[in-house]
Amino acid sequence: MCGRTCLTLEPDEILKACRYKTSKFQKSPINQDDNKSEDLNDRKECCGHIKGQYIEPEWRSEFNCGRKYVPSFNIAPNDVTPVLISRDHFCDEGDSKAESGRRRLLIPMLWGLIPFWHKGDYSKHKLTTNNCRLERMLESKLYNNAFKKGHRCVVLCEGFYEWQTKSPERAVYLFYMPQKEKAIIHDRNTWEPEDINLLKMAGVFDVWQDEQGDKIYSYSVITYESNETMSWLHHRMPAVLETEQQITDWLDFKNISNEEALAALRQPVSALEKHRVANLVNNARNKSNLCNKPIELIQSEKPTMNKLMSTWLNWRTPSASSKGCKDDKDDAKNHNLVSPTDDSASEPEDRNAKRRRFV
Questions:
Q1: CB atoms within 10 A of CB 104
Q2: Where does this protein have compositionally biased stretches of type Basic and acidic residues (predicted)?
Q3: What is the model's pLDDT at position 320?
Q4: Which residues, given as ranges, of the chain have pLDDT below 70?
């Protein structure tokens, strides 16, 4: 299961984190001297990039009925997140043949697939579609049509949260991919966008259109039975794409059949790291940067304040005795034990009034 993720990168940073290698150039062994010009042309894709180079995917902004991606430490269903798809989805047949499976796009999509056949307000289809069970996908009215059309996508995050269902305290853990040395996933100061190993999950997407013709791209995360990596915590887990080849095959709907793509998904992830986090993440409205921190780090941290604020508070805080007197007066007032004209409850009288009173 996958019900909450963390992705704090801005769009330009996500592009850097999603750099990928273009198809490798293989030199023809026949007539090498005569075919140098052909080899040179073959080394280039139709978009002008040399094969074997690392390139960034293209960012494609979609209106999505005004919904936008907002980086967050606590992303929940119905939020918008960037998703990788093949560029072939936006190519005509001629371009697609020349560039099939080689280029990637990043598109903001709504988490929670909206059925293309839904009528009316997109938020009122009353279906829970943040996760798609792999075992039932081909039989599902919700997902079968999108999957057969090749609407395969890769959902990006720094990590996903999961709750321990087999424990009464419902402990929460953040799962993420192994990182480079000295890179700490919850400490943004220890890594750069181009160095982070984002966690990538297989998904299926669809396009919904309202009566005015506005479109919303939306997706579901594919899940299957947990293996030993997560079975101790939860009985289901997202279909994590661990290798670059898995990602390429899943996105390349033109050259990789659905059967082949599904076979790749059934290779369970073997390398996931984790740490327990605080229950702050339980509330989807809590977007604090403490959400992805290890729980022991949060418990050990003490609130600090600057010197100016500390001085101001010390100056403003009354002494214990005066505070006690004030509290006693307030209690007396609340219980009608002090009359409105009582000296202890009223403002000090002016000097002339006191003089008249004692004459």
A1: 21
A2: 324-334
A3: 40
A4: 1, 23-52, 92-101, 301-359
* Secondary structure (3-state) at 215: strand
Which numeric CATH code is attached to 4-23+52-160+191-272?
3.90.1680.10
Give, rounded to a whole angstrom, the gap between the first and last alpha carbons of the chain. Answer: 85
User: Where are the domains positioned within the chain?
Assistant: 4-23+52-160+191-272
CA 168 to chain centre: 26
* pLDDT tens-place string over residues 266-295: 877 888 999 999 999 999 999 999 999 999
- Cite the active site residues: 2, 162
- From residue 4, alpha-carbon distances to 71, 291, 292, 298 in Å are 13, 11, 11, 20
Predicted local distance difference test score (pLDDT) of residue 49: 53
Crossing angle for the helix pair 244-251 and 258-265, to the nearest 10 degrees:
150
- Measured CA angle at 281 (ends 279, 286), to 5 deg: 120
Q: Regarding beta strands 104-111 and 215-225, do their DSSP bridges make them parallel or antiparallel, or are they unpaired?
A: parallel
